[in-house]
Specification:
Oligomer: single chain
Order of helices and strands: EHEEEHEHEEEEEHEEHEHEHEHEH
Strand content: 25-35%
Shape: elongated
Number of strands: 16
Largest sheet: 8 strands, mixed
Number of helices: 9
């Protein structure tokens, strides 16, 4: 097999998730050198201790690009020019960056990959996770986004190595017309993609019920998210959306409150270990087909009693 060059792109905070170790193990049969690109929001350190098996470790401080995805893609394109494969550990904010890099490289984007079969083939779920599609690409360049839950794992023992860090320069271009200003929310709750307990709110939850769900999440140390309808209504941000076009979650327990169970939402929760639903409609799809346990009742009556027990 001809030697290839691969780059793994992930956020700095994902270093300790275990996904990097899993990915390196998956790439062992590829006869490839593996470069790591870390997207961060702080200055680059001189060295980092990371799993053994990387060729280079590059650091990109996204603040220097004002979080402008166009400028980030323009900056990373020459840095990654020698890489035939770009593998993004998927986060919602990284999907548009992957799409821009694919466009600049003149290749297709294969999204939501769950299995790496070979350098030119992979598998991804289709029909809302009801089937697996094997995709083969004969293109020279490849840009794949990887479903986090398929590669993420508990940190496991591995051999580490101390790497020198190479800082990626930001392109100096006057073509950038958009300057993004980020106002990150300050919360002690875990991220949706990493939480062991997730609470979700749907159309059946109004503003008073969502306030109680927030209190319940705080008491349980759970993440809180919602369906597309509540995101569109302004109750949740896009980063808090659970579903096919939002975050795919894999908690030990998912508590679905006022959620009917539309297939677009269910596509994002199928990896949950236990699904508990609270709904006043016994015919709701989430109760009939997906919930391991359910409680029939009005959220206005159930949630205060649940909150009082915590």
């Amino acid at each position: 097999m001809k030697a290839i060059n691969t780059a793994i792109i992930l956020r700095e905070e994902d270093i300790g998730s275990g996904a990097l170790t899993v990915l390196l193990a998956s790439l062992q049969s590829w006869s490839t050198s593996v470069n790591l690109v870390l997207l961060a929001e702080e200055a680059a350190p001189h060295t980092l201790s990371l799993p053994e098996g990387l060729s280079t470790v590059m650091w990109f401080d996204r603040r220097d690009a004002n979080d402008d995805l166009g400028r980030m893609a323009t900056s990373l394109t020459p840095v990654l020019a020698a890489c035939s494969h770009l593998l993004f550990l998927e986060g919602k904010e990284l999907r548009p960056l992957a799409a821009r890099l694919a466009a600049l490289r003149g290749c297709d984007l294969i999204a939501d990959v769950t299995h790496l079969l070979s350098p030119d083939s992979c598998q991804r779920p289709v029909f809302a996770d009801q089937a697996l599609l094997t995709v083969r690409s004969l293109a020279k360049n490849h840009v794949w986004t990887l479903r986090r839950q398929a590669f993420d794992s508990e940190p496991c023992p591995h051999v580490t190595q101390l790497y020198s860090i190479v800082a990626c320069p930001v392109a100096n271009t006057e073509e950038t017309l958009v300057v993004s200003v980020r106002h990150p929310s300050v919360t002690s709750r875990p991220r949706l993609s990493q939480a062991e307990i997730v609470i979700g709110g749907g159309r059946g939850a109004g503003k008073p019920q969502l306030a109680m769900l927030s209190d319940i999440a705080d008491k349980l140390g759970a993440a809180l998210g919602g369906t597309r309808a509540l995101v569109d209504a302004g109750f949740f941000t896009e980063q808090d959306q659970i579903g096919q076009t939002g975050e795919h979650i894999s908690p030990r327990v998912y508590l679905a409150c006022g959620i009917s169970g539309a297939i677009q939402h269910v596509a994002g929760i199928t990896n949950s270990n236990i699904i508990i639903a609270i709904n006043n409609d016994p015919q709701a799809p989430i109760i009939k087909h997906y919930a391991d346990h359910y409680l029939l009742g009005d959220l206005s009556e159930v949630l205060p009693r649940l909150l009082a027990k915590l």
